[in-house]
Design goal:
It is a single chain. This protein is about 80% helix and about 0% strand. The chain has about 400 residues and is mostly helical. It has one domain: Growth Hormone, Chain: A (Up-down Bundle), CATH 1.20.1250.20. The two termini are about 25 Å apart.
Length: about 400
């Protein structure tokens, strides 16, 4: 696969965007919110917010994807989503460790999650503009790998500059958790800086005009998707396993902190290790995708993730949890990368953003269910282990539904 300027610029968007959910929703701000901003009921409140954000993405993605295809506005929509995500994330700097800031934290977090999720409708639709069809797996794997690498480096920088030192860099005070809150500004700046090459070097897909009214055009896109072999089952399978991954990402750091007593620093180190293995998995999975096919890769990953997740839930101590959790990354990257490559190979040129919008819809339409059930189980049983069990069930259900060919 030739590393063209376009492909590198496109792949860098994964590098640019990955620190936002990593630092915000998984390893730093979510833990800060549930332990310092809203220690009583914070886990449940975060679960409800995550559910609402996912539902908003599900409702908006098909409409925005069809709009972007029809107007040739894929790159413009990506730019607007990027700016929205950066501003919302940076705004979390103003959230202090006090219950009075809980609603501000939840509102800005919901906006950040929505913007960053919706940006991938447009970003994924640009894959055919930077690689040949027989290279989609490796191109997608390269981008996912860079995304994990970006998350690793961002985590390391945050750890060394702000979290570990007694005197954080740049005169940042530890008062009111300033050394934690500044990481949100860092993530926003990282996003804006490294997203620039895509908007310079990757051309926007051309507009595909339709004489039908917008809603009729949207229905037409849905009918096309339903006629593509395997697409209905894939969308249903993604609805299930994406729900499991959303729950895992939203509560992985919280789970480690509450069940095994991980400190903020330990959560960050765990995040670094997880992203190292995920980056390796994404790179290897991209090669495997082009050689063995996306479906085989995804089915293997779902089984492996379910097994490792079960080990992590039943882990009697930190050592087993560390081993199972770190190995999870080897299969998270290929699963997501192959899903993108599978849709890109089957999407008609005039329906790419539309089908990625439907893919996002399938991944988010019920993704409030996992966090919701997690919150209910934690609230009723008082056990985070019981809440995390929903992830295993959703991954296995996705494996059962996934098309065979």
């Amino acid at each position: 696969m030739r590393l063209s300027r376009r492909l590198i610029a496109w792949s860098l968007y994964d590098w640019a965007s990955s620190p936002v959910p990593t630092l915000h929703a998984t390893f730093i701000f979510s833990v800060f919110f549930t332990t310092a901003v809203m220690p009583e009921g914070g886990t449940a409140a975060w679960a409800w917010m995550t559910s609402a954000s996912a539902l908003a993405v599900a409702m908006a993605a098909p409409f925005l994807g069809r709009f972007a295809d029809a107007r040739g506005a894929v790159r413009l929509c990506l730019a607007l989503a990027t700016v929205m995500g950066a501003l919302a994330t940076a705004g979390l700097w103003f959230v202090k460790p006090d219950l009075s800031f809980a609603m501000l934290a939840l509102g800005l977090s919901a906006l950040s999650i929505f913007a960053m999720e919706i940006s991938f409708v447009f970003y994924n639709a640009m894959l055919p503009s930077v690689a040949r069809e027989d290279e989609f797996g490796r191109a997608s794997g390269l981008a996912w790998g860079l995304g994990y690498a970006g998350a690793i480096i961002a985590l390391v920088i945050v750890l060394l500059l702000f979290v570990l030192p007694d005197q954080p860099a740049f005169g940042v005070s530890t008062g009111d958790a300033g050394h934690i809150r500044i990481t949100m500004c860092f993530a926003a700046l990282w996003l804006c800086l490294f997203a620039v090459p895509l908007f310079i070097h990757v051309p926007a897909p051309p507009a595909v005009r339709s004489h039908e009214p917008f809603l009729a055009s949207l229905k037409h896109s849905f009918r096309i998707a339903m006629t593509i072999p395997g697409m209905p089952r894939f969308l249903l399978a993604r609805m299930l396993f994406a729900d499991g991954l959303v729950t895992l990402f939203a509560f992985g750091g919280i789970y480690a902190a509450t069940v095994f007593g991980f400190s903020q620093t330990m959560v960050l180190v765990f995040g670094i290790i997880l992203n190292v293995t995920a980056g390796i998995g994404a790179a290897l999975g991209g090669v495997a995708d082009d050689r063995f096919g996306s479906l085989r890769v995804m089915r293997l990953c779902l089984l492996a993730l379910a097994a490792l997740g079960l080990i992590a839930i039943m882990a009697p101590g930190e050592a087993v949890f560390w081993a199972a959790g770190a190995t999870l990354g080897l299969f998270i990257g290929p699963l997501q990368s192959s899903a993108r490559a599978w849709v890109a190979r089957r999407a008609p040129p005039d329906q790419r953003a539309s089908l990625f919008g439907l893919m996002m819809f399938s991944g988010k339409a019920t993704s409030f269910v996992g966090p919701f059930i997690y919150g209910v189980l934690v609230t009723t049983t008082g056990s985070d282990r019981a809440g995390m069990a929903v992830v295993i069930l959703l991954l296995l259900a996705g494996w059962v539904v996934m098309p065979r060919r």
